[in-house]
User: What shape does this take?
Amino acid sequence: MPSPTKSTPDRPAQRRQRLLHELKQKNVPAMLVTDVVNVTYLTGFSGDSSYLLLGKGVCLLISDARYTVQIEEECPGIDALIRKPNESLLKAVQQGVKQAKCNQIGFEAGTITYQHWQHLEATLDKIEWIPCDGLVETLRQVKDATEIAEIRLAVEQAERGFALIIAGLTGEMTELQVAHDLEHAMRRFGAAGVAFDPIVAVGARAALPHARPQSQCIADAPFTLIDWGARTVSGYRSDLTRLVITGKIPPKLAKVYRVVLNAQLAGIEAIRPGVRGADIDRIARSIIEKAGFGRQFGHSLGHGVGLHIHEAPRLSSTSNDELEPGMIVTVEPGIYLPGWGGVRIEDDILVTRDGCEVLTSVTKEWDEIQPK
Ligand code: ZN
Ligand code: ZN
Assistant: This one.
């Protein structure tokens, strides 16, 4: 006899409940969500050019006729206000706000365009607009089970793509070709695309933390830094960095690599609920500083990853973000020596109730990933 199937929880509905709770705490009766990623997070809607008006007794997705069917499919339980072809999005917002019947509305001050803001203020001048910056972003820091599964999938797509590329890597391939092939391989394994444009940096170019792929060949130096990630169909991302050894390992590289790896492992080891981002950054950074490379590690240790490639919480020297179970962060210390090269090692880490789980599994032992 088949066991009764559990109905899958409506995650977007749960997220909206959490936002409504936050709004109540702030005494804000409703909020206009304009950031496309936040709209997706709260509704499950994968389109764009749409705003969500959410409040007590109102949940209205303001969109256009291209998305009528898609909203029915993706957003059960959400009312859609479909604007007419000759009506602007802002005009439809005015209509939605009238339906909501409230005098105060929160808005996303950090992401709404100045032009849209000016228009809202001018046309809905009876409304008191309350800046609610970062409210949804704060909720997004802690991933629910569906999101964790999506990020695990993004990691898997990135790792399978990487394995395929490494297996076929040859000396005459350029940085651009490797970046292109990596994207293609991740898509072959089900990714909707890249999490960001991959960084493929041969030798001295690895000294640039955000090097753009160019025409250098893999054989031009004994190592190549690759920073890449996949984006799933639902929009969740992964973010990894590895150093690929393609020739005789210079002793200096071996030393620098060991320092970065020790710093990274110490940072990961320190991840657990209740620890602040600044504490993790300090633990990893102090290892690099003690080895004499403090000035060559010029960026923060890590960042949250989810629907955006960089999101809260931050692992930086000034971050008061406190880690909680369900957060997913990167740990990516680096040492960059201009004219010589650089090393960065990056993994994605899930904060668990009693510590953490490393979601990424590509080996960090370089002799195992030597290309042909
Ligand atoms: Zn990265
Ligand atoms: Zn990163």
